[in-house]
Amino acid sequence: MREATVFTTRKTFHEAWAARLPENVAIFREAILLRDENARRMGYKSDADFNLFSRMAKSTEWVEDLLTDLGEKLIGPGTVLFKEMEDLKRRLMEEKSEAVDAGSDTAVQPWERLYLATLLERDKRIDQKAISAYFPFKETSAAILGNISSYLQLRLEPVAKEDLEGCIWSHDVDVWAVWDEGEEENGQFVGYFYADLLDRENKYKHNQTVELQASYLREDGTRPLPAGILMCCFSPEVVDGCKVLKHENIITMYHELGHALQVLLSRTKWSAYHGYNVAIEFGEGIGTAMENHAWLKEELQNISCHYAYTDDAYMQSWQKNNRGKPLPPRTLPDGLIEDLVNDRKKRRIESYLKQLSDAGFDMAVHNPKSHEDLEKLDETKIYHDLKEMYTFIRPTVPSYPQADFSHLMSGYNSGYYSYICSNIFGEEIYQSNFAADPTSKTAWKRFRRELLQYGGSRDQTELLEEFLGRPPTTAALLKSVGVE
Questions:
Q1: Boundaries of domain holding 144
Q2: Most C-beta atoms within 10 A of its C-beta, which of 36, 259, 377, 397?
Q3: Domain Peptidase M3A/M3B catalytic: where (predicted)?
Q4: Is the pLDDT of residue 476 over 90?
Q5: Helix or strand or coil: residue 148?
Q6: Final residue before a domain boundary, out of 380, 414, 448
Q7: Euclidean distance between CA atoms 267 and 274, whole angstroms
Q8: How many domains does the chain fold into?
């Protein structure tokens, strides 16, 4: 969908994909009706009203108001960005390009969006391959861990491979013993940190942090110490024999390290509240706050190193394949960093608008005014209307997007708003605590002591308000995308 240059190829694929699973429409409808019926029998106003008890949202009205308010503020900037795509399509139509249907109107079609977005990215010269060359897997992952442990005043001691025989599931796994180097802790042992970052056959195809061992307080006052796994599924490209990561992998590492820190640094009485056993919005907010470090100029230059400088063999291969060219800069150049950062605002606005569309649909089907209203609801039309409102493209007909909305059938019903909410909380945490000095040990200590160490043992709304000194608002998120 990004690379096919003939529009009919993309159109044929998209229409077939969009129209699949019509049999799931009735199943989805039955599920939302049963959820609503069950909630009302228990005395709740809706399924959303029932489910919010385990989340940070104060009420269904709070969620609805949040989605409406953000939508009103982001749709305007979104239309400005979308105009770039419309203008590109018009230009291609004037050129009689086979990439678009010259006989159609100028409205961007669903099968054109990814292709046009790819062309716009190339126009702006965001050279992802050139950027990846500065993130050799081994060196970059070590640098990220080194930075975060330094900020938190932790010491990571590698556990020798021979000592791990029978204790790890793959030779790809690295393990560190984590020690506290802060003045107050005086060299206390924290726990064990595992990293299993590369894809392999039969491995779970997702990025996550796994709590291998929770900490809790025993009756005698001692506690088992925690162990956490940073488990990713990266498939690095191999360039001149060196594995290199994409920038999106770097973002993922910082995000998942936020969850790993929750596992390692929380100290709770009960194991049920340890680590990331918190409200979804709060836990993902921690990861989102950490992601910001993957966009900072100083941080990127600190963790980057062109692969050619990491091994003599790589340098020889680079020189052989780039005869007559000057050696590349050792760290990620300012120009490439600027390209990344400038593109980030656009991508975030687009991402937030998509989240608002999906969260709006979730609330529409799980928070109706009455059961009778839900019975009359046309879920497909609601989904199509919201997609057009927030993404400016009308979905293909026939299409049944709710038939493949797996989140709403796997525990996220009435909770999809958590994605946008976690971004709000993450930006609040980052801008209030880290923005002035992202490497400040005082800021990182506060992050640890006032947010991470409590796990889920305290009300997270109160915890966040104490940390911020006020209730969270959308101002930090809007500021991060240039909307005041």
A1: 131-332
A2: 36
A3: 3-482
A4: yes
A5: helix
A6: 414
A7: 7
A8: 2
